[in-house]
């Protein structure tokens, strides 16, 4: 392999490694453009999202007015921060979702009772196992991967294509 080919190959690998990480994670901003505020239906917002391991959930709010606590289901149901496993108060909190499980978040200053709570289910990155052959009605189509996986793969493909084109001087 010539030194220029070796350099191009190294550049391609480095570029792919540097760019794939941000592509794989999705930042889910709670409440979208309305943020983390009382009187919102965060259950509806969460039901319209798909969360995967490695994604982030972000809370945007008035720094000294609200906060975020990660609690268990009892804390979520009763709006209590007892036994909280995490808390944030920066006003722009980015919380990694590192495990496939259900997460529970509440506002700890009493606003939980006004709707400032959200529960999200985080899925593993790998597609679910195929359904049994006899379960045609409930099985996904054989060629379809979960939407999040398709979205992420396409971004990586575009980045790789651009890096290759620049490397060969085609752009």
From TrEMBL:
Which keywords appear in this protein's UniProt record, sorted alphabetically? Answer: Disulfide bond, Glycoprotein, Membrane, Signal, Transmembrane, Transmembrane helix
What is the annotated signal peptide range for this record? 1-25
List the molecular function annotations (GO) for this entry: electron transfer activity
Question: Would you say which domain of life the source belongs to?
Answer: Eukaryota
Pfam families on file: Cu_bind_like
Spans through the membrane? 153-170
InterPro entries for this protein: Cupredoxin, Phytocyanin-like, Phytocyanin_dom
The UniProt entry's GO CC annotations, sorted and at most eight, read:
plasma membrane
The record ties this protein, via SUPFAM superfamilies, to: Cupredoxins (SSF49503)
| Domain Phytocyanin span(s) in chain numbering | 26-124
Q: Its function?
A: May act as a carbohydrate transporter.
Indicate the family of this protein. Answer: Belongs to the early nodulin-like (ENODL) family.
What's the protein name? Phytocyanin domain-containing protein
This protein's species is: Carpinus fangiana
